[in-house]
Design goal:
By secondary structure, this protein is of the alpha+beta class. It has helices spanning 5-33, 50-66; strands at 37-41, 44-48.
């Protein structure tokens, strides 16, 4: 049984969108509760504080309103 390629690409797109929403919710929760996000990047553990997340969100919001 084979699945059409179009269905697979639609499924992959839905997965990507869900992961993007999940990451955004994680950032919002970290800001709301004043906690850091912790993740692995370039072989190192990285901590991003709630304050850094707030600053990034404000910069992103400003960037999108200027367009």
């Amino acid at each position: 049984m084979s699945v059409p390629t179009e269905s697979l690409s639609d499924f992959a797109k839905e997965i990507s969108e869900a992961l993007t929403r999940s990451a955004q919710l994680a950032r919002e929760d970290a800001i709301k509760h004043g906690t850091s996000l912790v993740f692995w990047k370039d072989g190192k553990i990285v901590y991003v504080t709630a304050e850094e997340l707030k600053a990034r969100a404000a910069a992103e919001k400003q960037k999108t309103t200027l367009k």
